[in-house]
Write a structure and sequence with these properties.
mainly beta; 44% strand; single chain; three-stranded antiparallel beta sheet
């Protein structure tokens, strides 16, 4: 990555997950694991302090290969020190198939 400005704006972060394989029961409304969410937070100082969590659904039962998008991830002067942490709201089988961070330079 070659960037000519000092401030970086992470525009979007998306995940591709394999999910929808954790329950067979038809009556799942309100049951833990029926609609799990992934939580994302980030740190600009290598993990010493953290942002607030952002959450997004990874898909209900039977939804496979869902893309999960997180947008508007703020700006940072410390791209090298920025780390992302993902965690789940429910104890379900989850496979992370890929992730991509789209960034752009800014003069703001």
């Amino acid at each position: 990555i070659y960037i000519t400005t000092d401030i970086i704006e992470p525009n979007e972060y998306f995940l591709i997950t394999e999910n929808g394989v954790y329950f067979i029961d038809e009556e799942m409304d309100g049951v833990q694991g029926a609609d799990p969410e992934v939580m994302l937070r980030w740190s600009d100082d290598g993990g010493h302090t953290w942002s607030n969590y952002r959450t997004a659904s990874i898909g209900k039962i039977g939804e496979y290969y869902r893309r999960v998008w997180f947008r508007r991830l703020g700006m940072t002067l410390q791209l090298r020190d920025r780390v992302y942490e993902l965690s789940m709201t429910d104890p379900v089988k989850t496979a992370l198939m890929g992730a991509e961070l789209l960034i752009s330079p800014t003069n703001a």
